[in-house]
Amino acid sequence: MKKINLIHPFNKSLIPNQPVVLALGFFDGVHLGHQQVIKTAKKIAEKNKQKLAVMTFNQSPSTVFGNDNEKDFRYLSTINRKANLFEKLGVDYMYIVDLSEDFIKLKPQEFVDQYIVNLNAKTVVAGFDYTYGPKEIANMTTLVTYANNRFDVVKVDKMEFSGQKIGTTSIKNNLKNNQLENANKQLGYIYENTGEVVHGFQRGRTLGYPTANIDIDKKEFIPGIGVYITEIKIDNIWYPSMTSVGFNITFDDVKDLVVESNILDFNKDIYGKKVTLKWRKFLRKEVKFDGIDKLIEQLDKDKIDTENYFKNNK
User: Fold this and answer.
1) Which long-range contacts (CB under 8 A, 24 or more apart) does 145-153 make?
2) CB neighbours of 182 closer than 8 A, spacing ≥ 6?
3) How far apart (Å, rounded) are the C-alpha atoms in residues 86 and 187?
4) 21 with 135, same domain?
5) Has residue 177 been placed in a domain?
6) 3-state secondary structure of 193
7) CATH (domain of 20)
8) Under DSSP, is residue 201 helix (H, G, I), strand (E, B) or coil?
9) Is 180 helix (H, G, I), strand (E, B) or coil?
10) pLDDT of residue 208
């Protein structure tokens, strides 16, 4: 898959000179709803013997048009993670449009003419609620008029989970509220975070449960406070682990949120390494224990639960 960054007004020479099926959306999380859009576009591309392109943005539109602040905004999938997921779905070209002031001033017809048409789209595929300006005049219905017979428009209906639309907001709420299983079902894969192993209090060693303190990428959304069954990837090898997200409230000396993993049967020095966490199952809420012995007793139970999970989910 080829990644192509577009800054308005983009140079047409950057665009491969061949017809494509173009999937439109921001695609944060590349969840099941997004996957349906891309898979629909892929089928059309294969039928027409054309390449599949996806157009997304370098930041969330809600940080430009909504009340969110890009500085503090956290994504289900960063650009790199999104690219990995796109590639698995068979995308050939990934267009990343810079949401600059000039770009967001484009009128709907200008967007269609300067982007969709100039990207050589012969078919455009997007979700039922995709917009490219004020939703009253820039929706999937009006796109047919703006197209003016230059490309076909395919609208993908919403997908639901438990009677609700599958969407980024729903998944974030599930992750925040420890509903990990529901989040993963809507994503269609197991949620991941990436980060670097940094020095912490090294308190876990004294408890018999040494932990890797992970500085999660500041742009990534982190599951809610609690203890989880996880896997951690170190040097391209996955290891079973249990991970705490919280403030170590038993000791009451941590002011910032901490993500730390106890890696089962592992004792290598991994400070400074880039790692990936795969969030498999929520175990329990963070609890303030009455003394170290009670904490260790609970950690022993957590370890048994984690070991049993991996025995039953090989």
Assistant:
1) 146/108, 146/109, 146/112, 147/112, 147/116, 150/117, 151/22, 151/116, 151/117, 151/121, 151/122, 151/123, 151/124, 152/122, 152/123, 152/124, 153/123, 153/124
2) 161, 162, 174
3) 13
4) yes
5) no
6) strand
7) 3.40.50.620
8) coil
9) helix
10) 72
Residue among 126, 122, 41 nearest 89 (CA)? 41
pLDDT of 196: 97
pTM of the model as a whole: 0.94
DSSP 12-35: GGGS-SS-EEEEES--TT--HHHH
Residue 171 domain-assigned (yes or no): no
**Which residue range is the domain that position 244 belongs to?**
190-312
The CATH number for 216's domain is: 2.40.30.30
Q: What's the rounded Cα separation, in Å, for the pair 226 and 243?
A: 8
Q: Which residue has the tokens 């403030």?
A: 247
Q: Decide if 183 is inside a domain.
A: no
Same structural domain, 305 and 223: yes
- Asked if residue 156 and residue 80 are part of one domain, the reply reads yes
Per the structure, the count of domains in the chain is 2
Place of tokens 């999970």: 309
DSSP structure class, residue 163:
T
- How much is the pLDDT for 181? 97
Query: Is there a domain that residue 181 lies in?
Result: no
Q: Are residues 146 and 213 in the same domain?
A: no
* pLDDT 10s digits, 104-162: 999 999 999 999 999 999 999 999 999 999 999 999 999 999 999 999 999 999 999 99
